Structure formats: structure tokens, C-alpha cells
Structure to design on (239 residues):
């Protein structure tokens, strides 16, 4: 078994699990159906193609930077009649960063890794209007489980956020898919992305805390100001 690690960062993200009709909400973290859709698009699959192999992957996600929930609204007119359609609300996560991971057979994971490096369709973070701001793939980890991988991947929060932290460790919230549907139930197991008949099943999810080291934390005592023009000349990864 192998684990493919993803970095999901961007100005806006939106991961709906139960959103319908005129109110399109977002979960606090990426959904399995959204990430599976991203991977399927990278492979060039059409929406009507079979997803059985991807749906079997086990999924987990870590909240490295929760971001800010914001609301937008959209207006539209009917294409044929020109009549006004109901105003719809759209919710997003602004400036959030997540580390997501899928676990599966070695050949499946390696195929997805290659697809992310040369995607057929460009990846987006839940909605097409939400492009990633960093490379999505972080690599493949072999011989390790989801929990182990998420507990050792470095903190991916933005440098400005890491510098605000003063302690030697940070506690990050994580969500992992459970075996046998135990834990909280979320209607987020993709069965079909066919636009004519999208199908999702329930899956079990458990939340837990991941402690990580904070190499870029703010030291006590005199501080370097956030604005440092000399950083354009080079520096460490925390600047």
C-alpha cells in the first residue's frame, strides 16, 4: 500500500458535501468526493466514466491553515426565457491550506501521482473558480499508513502564519475515513459524477489532533519585523 500526499492551497476553496439548490455551503475541510474528482480530472476521465477504483481509496485530510469562511451571491437569467433565476448564495474558504492524502494499491497511487504531474484537465479546489496557488502533489509515501503520513508531513501553513506561532509544537485538526462506517457519517462517498445522475453514499469520518513541530515559530525576545526588503536577496524557507 502507498499514500499519495496532496497540498491544497489557494485564495479560495469550496468543498460542498450536502449543498443543494440556491445555497451552496462548504465544509471546513476538503471532501473525499471533491479530491477524487480532482484526481479523476487529472487522469482525463469523463464524468460518466466508472469511479470504482478511485472510490476504494481511503481518504484523510489535515487542516494546516483553516482560512476564513466568506459568502458570495450570484444572479442569473434563464438561458431560454430570460427570466431572473433565484439569487444563490455561495460559500468559500479564503486563504486556507490543507494536506490531504489517499491510500491504496501501489499501482493505483503511482498512476495518480503521474497524472497530477501532467494533468489532462487542470485541478481546482472544489469549484472551477478556485485554482490552486501551489503545486498540488507532494509525493508518494510507501510502506506507511495514512495516520503516520499525516503525523510526519511538515506544517504547510503560510510563512506569515507560522511566524505568529510561539510554541515548539502546533496541534492541527485532522479527519480520517474510518473502517466500517464508524464515527460521524458524511454523504461524501462518490459513486458517480454523471451530471444526469450524480450519486453519493455515506462514509464514516473520525476527527483527531496531530501535533507537529514549528521550525518557523516566533522566538521570544526582540523580533524581526514582518516587512523585510532584504528577503528578495535570498533567505531561509521561513521568510
Amino acid at each position: 500500500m502507498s499514500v499519495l500526499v496532496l497540498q491544497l492551497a489557494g485564495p479560495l476553496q469550496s468543498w460542498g458535501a450536502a449543498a443543494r439548490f440556491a445555497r451552496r455551503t462548504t465544509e471546513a475541510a476538503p471532501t473525499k468526493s471533491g479530491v477524487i474528482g480532482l484526481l479523476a480530472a487529472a487522469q482525463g476521465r469523463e464524468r460518466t466514466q466508472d469511479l470504482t477504483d478511485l472510490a476504494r481509496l481511503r481518504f484523510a485530510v489535515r487542516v494546516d491553515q483553516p482560512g476564513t469562511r466568506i459568502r458570495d451571491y450570484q444572479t442569473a437569467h434563464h438561458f431560454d426565457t430570460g427570466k431572473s433565476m433565484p439569487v444563490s448564495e455561495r460559500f468559500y474558504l479564503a486563504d486556507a491550506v490543507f494536506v490531504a492524502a489517499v491510500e491504496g494499491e501501489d499501482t493505483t497511487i503511482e498512476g495518480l501521482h503521474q497524472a497530477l504531474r501532467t494533468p489532462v484537465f487542470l485541478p481546482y479546489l472544489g469549484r472551477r473558480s478556485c485554482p490552486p496557488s501551489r503545486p498540488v502533489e507532494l509525493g508518494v509515501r510507501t510502506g506507511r499508513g495514512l495516520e503516520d503520513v499525516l503525523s510526519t508531513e511538515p506544517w504547510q501553513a503560510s510563512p506569515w502564519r507560522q511566524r505568529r506561532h510561539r510554541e515548539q509544537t502546533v496541534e492541527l485538526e485532522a479527519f480520517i475515513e474510518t473502517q466500517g462506517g464508524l464515527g460521524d457519517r458524511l454523504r461524501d462517498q462518490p459513486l458517480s459524477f454523471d451530471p444526469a445522475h450524480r450519486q453519493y453514499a455515506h462514509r464514516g469520518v473520525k476527527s483527531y489532533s496531530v501535533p507537529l513541530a514549528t521550525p518557523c515559530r516566533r522566538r521570544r525576545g526582540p523580533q524581526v519585523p514582518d516587512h523585510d526588503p532584504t528577503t528578495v536577496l535570498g533567505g531561509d524557507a521561513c521568510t
User: Anything to note?
Assistant: The chain has a mean pLDDT of 90. The first strand starts at residue 2 and ends at 13. The first helix runs from residue 32 to 43.
